[in-house]
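Quick one:
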Amino acid sequence: MTPNVASISSQPSRRSFLASTAVAAAAVAGGMPLLTACGESDGGSREGTTSGKAADKLLPTYVASTIAKPDLPSKNGSSAGYIGKVDLAALASSVPDKLGTGAPLKIMSPLWGTPPKPDCAYYKALDAEAGTKITWQNQDGNTYGEKLGAVLASSSIPDMVVVPSWELVGKISSAVTAKFMDLGPYLAGDKVKKYPNLAAIPSDSWRMSIFGGALRGIPMPAASTPGIVPYYRKDVFDKKGYTVPKSADEFLSWAKEATSAKAKVWACGDMRWSAAGFFGVQPAGTLGWNIGDDGRLTYRIEHPEYLEHLEWVRKLFAAGVVHPDDKANTGDASQRFTAGQILVFNGDMSAWYGKTTEQAQSNPDFQIEGMDYFAADGGNPTLYAAQPAGIWSMIRKGASKETIENALAAANFAAAPYGTKERMFVDYGVEGTHYTVKNGVPIKNDRGIQEVNNAWVLLAAPAPYTAHPDFPEIARKQVEWQQRQGAFVKKTTTYGMNIVEPSRYATLSSQFEQLEIDFVRGNKKLSDIQQAISTWKSSGGDKLRDWYKQLLDKNGSGN
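Output:
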């Protein structure tokens, strides 16, 4: 039961990565990095966080779902895996009684691709099953922040709004506390038991949903294992007799051997994302702050490994093993990968299944595998946990009780676990209309592909799981890869803490991504990076460190 996954350019842009991973999370439980807003109360500061006992009393009671036992239980922070066939004719129901009353509900959400028509069969069927009457205000996911900012600045806010973590910057982060309601009276403690699928969402994910001292978000949970996979063409590796590299030097040596500009084959694309894992650098998608073994609170760019991982990627570019289009930072690296023009690329977890299905008919020999992370010197890697949630649906302040209850009913339906009638409806639509069943496996038709590209999956989600009935071995490989990497994952000091930094520091680190892009391509010098780090410290980085120290002293550590 795997929903469609949007296709977003796989060039190394953190914004596009966050967006693609958010959508993919519904399908394959990819991690979602975040930087979000939280404060003391509606009338107090909107900076800071709420954690510890103060957060615990705001959380819904956790009641795990027992409907479908996974074939591969979660381990080391992985998603759960389902690889056996499900009897589609005997699916259990996680919502035996409709909780929705059919009252009108307007929902704004990002959507990548062409949105379904408002009166399509899929929307009608979901409304009928869930007892809802939703008017979807789908917005282009690539420009969602602009629309979100404008809507939150206005006096006309839809009943429910999907809020991604990567849009929570500047005024939007403050508006979340000001414009969305406290869901505690409906969900805190045992109140959530009215909505069993919401009760089955892990507590860490709910903790990430506290904004401004109140429970305001309904989360999409995420696995804590890495969201980025260094993919390689296993079919080509096997044919050529290549050995999968297990150190930074081995990778560079292999890359030189595998590259043949004459044959139009290059080893890889821009490897910055994977290099962070190879060199033990905290990913940019986390908050970036951590207290090390030496007891010092430092930011990711202050570590020597930060420069080392960029210098290594620069060596790849200098050696000519990176595809020219990657060097020019144009096009889609994943398409170059499937075309055999590059043999390794960074991608989110969804690419494993997405590229397999894409190539199944036209290139049956195609095999995509995930390379295990290694430490640069060939030892065990140091990896950092992804945050347990990074996208939420929220209900506007002032909404009527009936609107609130219908919004929660929709979210409860969307959070149905794998192996249920509700999950099938959300992920596949109506049998005969959107999909057919062949050998016990649901297969979407053209209408299903178009209409079941929707925002229902962003209202809420069950605990992270991975399942592909048409390619169960891909699901196995994904979960086993997560479990292997998870053995080396560490939680940072700010893990699970929903933090908004003071607005005066909002753009403090914004120049580093472009600087990294330029440096690895040889367009900037090492001294430029070092100067930027020095400027970061003097322009507010050291003061922000003091702010974090006070925050952590007050709230404790996330690990």
